[in-house]
Amino acid sequence: MKAELTEKFLALYGQEPKANYFTPGRVNLIGEHIDYNGGLVMPCAVTLGTWLSIAPNNDRVIRFNSLNFPETQEIALQPSYTKTGSEWYNYPLGVFHEILKKHEIPTGLDLLFYGNIPIGSGLSSSASIEVAMAYALNDYFNFGYEKIEIPLLAQKVENEFIGVNCGIMDQFAVAFGEAHKALVLNCDTLKYKSVDCNLGDYSLAIINTNKPRKLAESKYNERVAECQTGLAQLNQEITLNNLCELNAEKFSLHSHLITDETVLKRATHVIRENDRVSLAAKALNEGNLEEFGRLMYASHQSLKDLYEVTGAELDAVVEFCTDYEYVIGARMTGAGFGGCAIALLKKGQEEDFARQLTDFYVERIGYPAAIYISEIGDGASAI
């Protein structure tokens, strides 16, 4: 890929790139809609991701090009920027906006992006682009950001420049990912531990429903607000910074404070899902993939019934997986409302799984899903 990008870069800009970077996408193995509630999540980086090639120019402009999108942008270096429209280059532009608050960028830049993360799939293509840009600027200009500052900066871009109230999980996972390991991240303290994710006889299948999920336009922000309402009502009687400070037992003692049935359902999912992450980490440490798979199914059911973020497409995939003898666990991953599901699929069954799932999904939904088999990969790096 580096050689292909170099060739494209040379054709586009008349010079070769001076540096190249890769940042992965991510899947969340379990712990959904927990990151903005201060609890535990279990993401891992995947081997799909974003490549970025850069070179300086003497024109004091930033040139944005992508092999994935027709839209291009050339914009003069200036002290700050404002998001305009919904084009892809707003994500890296937001990184420039944030970094320019503290650092002067001494030269113009020619940029070329390429990604093989399906857009709108819920595999964090936006976080991958943001972290790739932040990592590249920090590395190329030696700005001195600590590793933890990169995902925090990228999250701020997502929240304030793009306008999506996401938590830290996506940006953290694509920055800190480790091959063959899952990360158990406390989204409140940002403390994390790596858990060996030895899938043994199983592969990680990623099933893209091909229903695009436009997060900023979805009900994601509505779910964030519902959780904040639940937290405020609980704080009439106890003092909490986040919903996930409660376990299921303590929550049952105070749940009567939440008077709205919908808000109660949202909070119940959050508390139980947070507990499931701890149980899932224990299962992985013990090599108990069957228990891990059971927890995946339980997570999806909660996201369907209590959090109501799955939809017909994701439910169809998980329904098929439940009845397919060579899958031991499946669930939606990401924010939902479309996007992807993941499944633990026995190795050697990939072709049969893809064929049977495609037939089932087309009959149920009317168009095919896309199926990928991925490894668990490393986080952002220079290449």
From TrEMBL:
Annotated site location: Transition state stabilizer: 26
Pathway: Carbohydrate metabolism; galactose metabolism
Domain Galactokinase N-terminal: start-end pairs: 7-56
Residues reported in the UniProt entry to bind Mg(2+): 126, 158
Key words of the record: ATP-binding, Carbohydrate metabolism, Cytoplasm, Galactose metabolism, Kinase, Magnesium, Metal-binding, Nucleotide-binding, Transferase
GO molecular function, one term: galactokinase activity
Catalyzed reactions: alpha-D-galactose + ATP = alpha-D-galactose 1-phosphate + ADP + H(+)
GO biological process: galactose metabolic process
Domain GHMP kinase C-terminal: 280-362
Name recorded for this polypeptide: Galactokinase
